[in-house]
Structure formats: C-alpha cells, structure tokens
Design goal:
By secondary structure, the chain is α+β, with helices and mostly antiparallel strands. About 40% of the residues lie in helices and about 15% in strands. The protein folds into 2 domains: about 120 residues, Phosphorylase Kinase, domain 1, CATH 3.30.200.20; about 210 residues, Aminoglycoside 3'-phosphotransferase, Chain: A, domain 2 (Alpha-Beta Complex). It contains 9 helices and 10 strands. The strands form 3 sheets. Strands 1-2-3-5-4 form a 5-stranded antiparallel sheet, with helices on one face. α8 crosses α9. The longest helix is centred in the middle third of the chain and has 29 residues. The chain is globular, with a radius of gyration of 20 Å. It starts with 9 loop residues before the first helix and ends in a 9-residue tail after the last helix.
Length: about 325
C-alpha cells in the first residue's frame, strides 16, 4: 500500500519483531509499494536490514474473518518455505522463521507481520517485461515452480476456487446505483461509472461463469502457482539472479494462472517454459479466464473501497485511476 496504516501501533510492531525474531529494531522505514500489504525496512543498530510485510486481517482478501485470514496467510507462507527448502527453488523469497518456528505473528487483533531477508538489487514496477530475455527467464522459473508441486503435502496449499472476491458486494452495488452514494470523495464517481457500465459488467460476469464451467471440468493438470508473477514481484539481485517475492497468493491451479501474465509471443515463450516444465500445452480458455478474473477482482475490490467510508489518499487516488480505466471492460476480454 502507498500509505502507512493509521491504526497500526508502530511500537507494537517493533515489539513483535523483537519478541518474534530477536531483532533490536533501531528504525522502521515505511516503503510505499503496491496494493494489499504494508511494508517496512527494518534496521538494527549494526545496520543489518530486513523487510517486514504487514497484512490487514480485516481486508477480506485472505479470509472471511481475522482468524481465517491469518490461517490462509500462514498456509501460503509455509508453502513458500517448503518450495524453497524441499523443492530446492532458490528463487523463492520465503519468510524467515521466528523463534518458535512460525512464519507469521499477530500484531494486535487486526494485523499480521512476516519477516523476509532484505534483498539488495533492482526491483521493477508493474508493467510489461522489458525484454524477451527477462520474459523467458521468468517462464523457465515458472516451469520449475510448477514441476515442484509434488513436494507439497496434501492439505497445505489452498486450491484456487475460481471465485471473484467480493462478487456479492459488487452485485449489491450494481443494485444500488440509482441513489446517491455519500461515503467519500470517490463514491459518486464510482456509482455513476457503475451505472453506465452495468450491462457491460453483467455480461462480463456471465462470460466468466461460462469459462469457469469449462476450466473447472478437470483439475488433473493443476500445479502449484504463484498467482501474480508480474514484473513488480521480481527482484534482480547483485548476483544477477531473478527472485520471486510476495507469496500470499500461492495456490494450486491451472498453469495458466501464472502463464497468462507472462506469455506474449506464444510459440517462443512456451518453448522457454517447456525447458523446465513437462508440458507446454496451454488452454486458451484458461488464459482468458484469468485475464478476466484479474480485471473483475480489481473492479470488485475498488468498488468495495468506494462504497464504504473513505478519504482522499494516494491509495484511493490510484484505485480510482484503475477503476475508471477498467470500466467498461474491453471487448477483447469478453470474446
């Protein structure tokens, strides 16, 4: 997130890091990055650095309530640890274990913190891969990831249920577009945008449901997937190694859950993927499903933001920019 949470007690975060990971915290430097989680660089008196990630357990992204969200994050981070340690995937940036062998600790009732090694290297913003070399390197890593699925014990890693998060809220919002919304500066613009895009959005949801019916018919080829292998989740370190971060979205699903985000020139790209994966067959329907899922999930998230009480902030400005560009949904996503 671009803004630090106002209701998180920094001193409590400092104490949690000290108790859990035995760090004498000299400073906490907030880093405004991405959407979803909050991030700090943690520095001790000797100048050693770590990267702390804090998730809001009330957000609804990981689970329906705080305990369910904590359990889901814990499962995801344990999956990342196992992929790195048992799967020998050196590119997986997994959380550090605390003094009790845990990957996650509560910070009060509403937040959870995980701690990661600090990576000295080059990070990238969200967008297109800069070169074919980078794209093919990512595809080879994803092939290795998908092939590592057998190292995971049954029941550890969640299965992608293919549902659009906050879909019920989105449908409820579509039914309330005829009366003014007064919850904040982006409420009325959101209502008017939904009102003008209602038919387009309902068509997109129907199209998504038909794709789900096709893709979910067989799960035999499902593998462990990262879920968001975009440019913003890779770091190239000083040894020129490409490293994959942010494992909270890890899940068992079709390979296309990852591939849709990376594959451009299909023939050349899938050749790179097949260097590490046993199968390079791609389902066009599954690729389309995940392209559409990404758009629908973001629309539902930002509509939820703006239907509720909110102020103007850097996060809300960015959310409105995305929402206003996402609706109406482009026709190529619905074909």
């Amino acid at each position: 997130m671009l803004t630090e949470p106002v209701d998180l007690d920094r001193e409590e975060l400092r104490e949690t890091l000290a108790r859990g990971w035995r760090i004498d915290v000299a400073s906490l430097d907030y880093r405004p990055l991405g959407f979803g989680s909050h991030h700090w660089v943690v520095i001790d008196p000797a100048g050693s650095r770590w990267f702390a990630t804090v998730d809001d357990l009330r957000s609804g992204r990981a689970g329906e309530d705080r305990d369910a969200a904590f359990a889901a994050l814990e499962s995801a981070f344990l999956t990342a640890r196992m992929l790195r340690d048992e799967g020998k995937l050196e590119f997986v940036v997994a959380p550090l274990l605390d003094r009790d062998g845990s990957v996650l600790r509560r910070v009060g009732l509403d937040y959870a913190v995980s701690l990661f090694p600090f990576i000295d290297g080059e990070s990238f913003g969200f967008g297109e891969y800069r070169s074919e070399r980078d794209r093919h390197e990512v595809l080879r890593l994803l092939g290795r990831l998908h092939e590592a699925s057998p190292v995971l014990p049954s029941g550890l890693t969640r299965h992608d249920d293919l549902t659009v998060p906050r879909r019920a809220e989105l449908l409820e919002a579509l039914g309330q577009v005829d009366a003014p919304w007064t919850t904040g500066p982006f409420a009325e613009p959101t209502r008017l945008l939904l009102q003008s895009s209602a038919e387009n959005l309902r068509t997109a949801l129907d199209r998504y449901d038909s794709l789900v019916a096709e893709v979910s018919a067989s799960t035999s080829s499902w593998v462990v997937t990262h879920g968001e292998p975009h440019t913003g989740n890779f770091i190239r370190d000083r040894q020129d190694r490409l490293l994959l971060i942010d494992w909270d979205t890890v899940a068992l699903g079709p390979p296309e859950r990852d591939l849709w985000m990376v594959v451009g020139d299909e023939q050349a790209d899938l050749a790179a993927y097949s260097n590490a994966a046993r199968s390079a067959k791609v389902s066009p329907r599954a690729m389309q499903l995940y392209r559409l899922w990404w758009t629908l999930a973001d629309i539902a998230e930002f509509v939820s933001w703006f239907r509720g009480p909110h102020d103007r902030s850097a996060d809300k400005e960015a959310g409105w920019t995305f929402l206003s560009r996402a609706l109406p949904i482009r026709s190529e996503l619905l074909d």
